[in-house]
Amino acid sequence: MAYLVSDPELLRVVRAEVEPAVSQGLLSLEDRLEDCPQLVAAYHEVLRCHTASASVRSVAAPTDLGGLTLDPGAKVLLPYRQLHFDEFIFGRNVDKFDADRFLANTGLSKSPSFRPFGGGTTYCAGRHVARRELLTFAALMVYRYDIETSPANVGEAQGGFPRCDVKKPSLGVLPPVVGDDLILNLRKRGGDL
Question: What whole-number distance in Å separates Cα of residue 150 and Cα of residue 56?
Fold first, then answer.
């Protein structure tokens, strides 16, 4: 929500995109939201910027890596966050949120370098439920409410956006820095849903 609220044009585009889907009712809404490309692209970009999934693998054969020998049976932790900031895959502006990144290259969401839910045998079983919940939540929020940042925001959030806490270990979505929570004001819009 923070990205939508901080970019009025993105909010306008997503709202216009989801209104026809939401106005048809809640039954099968999650399926209709898959046909909202800007909403889905923004979802992917949020995952790219704010997840820190990892995988653990067992070494199968003696492996030399950076001057060290890894013995068979040793465990290796593979953090995926670094993949999401690879300029070769995601472009020069990898350190910035770009709501159009996954629109400009629709294949990015299928790239082996995009691993917000892990991969292989450790692929998150709940990834489809999470996607449907997040897309539905965002769509209903922008459909039902006019949303703006509150003057009560403090710290970095006062400038409109909370910082991501990359210092805390996480195996999922990274939290905001303590004290950077974004307070939003909601005002009910027209509509029955």
Answer: 42
Contact 40, 135 (CB under 8 A): yes
The count of other CB atoms within 10 Å of the CB of residue 106 is 12
Where does the chain have alpha helices with state H?
2-6, 8-23, 29-33, 37-50, 87-90, 101-104, 127-144
Give the CA count within 13 Å in the CB-facing half-sphere of 97: 20
In 3D, which of 141, 51, 40 has the Cα closest to residue 100?
40
Closest CA to 156 of 174, 179, 184, 185: 179
pLDDT along the chain (193 residues), means of 10: 90 96 92 96 96 88 94 91 94 94 94 89 87 96 91 61 81 84 87 58
